[in-house]
Structures are given as C-alpha cells and as structure tokens.
Description:
Layout: E1 2-4, H1 10-16, H2 27-30, E2 32-38, E3 41-51, E4 54-62, H3 71-85, E5 90-96, H4 100-108, E6 112-121, E7 124-132
Amino acid sequence: xxxxLELNDIEIVNKLIxxxxxxxxxxELKKKASVYxxxxxxxxxxxxxxxxxxAELDYIFVQKEERKRGIASKLLxxxxxxxxxxNVESIDLEVNSLNEKAINLYQKFEFKIIGIRKKYYxxxxxxIMKREIR
Length: 134
C-alpha cells in the first residue's frame, strides 16, 4: 500500500534511509512524499517537488530486503500520476553514475541522460536525467 508521508513517519523514514536529518517537520510543506507500507511497516519511500510545469525527484529508497519486488516501480508510478494531475510536463533527477541499479530503473521508465555533473558525488560524476510526462 502506498500512502502520503505523515508527520509520525518522519523518524522511521530517516532511520530507514540512514539520514537522521533528511526530513524535518517542515518537510511536507516543501515537498511531496509517499511511503510504501508492507505488513504495517514502512519499507519504501519517495520524495519529489513540483515546480510549476516540472518536477524534481529528490529521493527514492526501498529497504534492501524488499528490493526486486516492484516497490520502486510502484512508487514512481504514483509520482507520475500525481505529476500528470498537476499538469507537470517533465521530471528531472540526479543519480550517482555508479548506481547502475537506479539508472536501469530510471531508464526502464524512459528517463534519458541529458547531462553530467562532474565529480558531484564526492569525486564521482552525477548524471542528470529527464523524463517527459504525457
């Protein structure tokens, strides 16, 4: 089940993604976020911003034990639906050039590499990817 992030999810999601400061209490005012629930536990998370006619995917995460079960795909599809309903024309993201699994997932959903940020991730290039929303 996918549902919007709630304030009482913040601590759980921060622990899940191993970043205790990623989400603050003001988080929901600035970004959109959803969680994937399995057996009453949060096992996945997505966050993004809608900026007029475009969106930026900030973060997608699925707990290691739950990967390869379509959860990331379902989270992305939920974001795509929201973007269509918000008249978004395109979605941008950045990804570490060594993160092959993420790159493959994004390419599966028609994201294209449109640029490179040299040494963006502690000396590793970041790929800028974009997907048009139809």
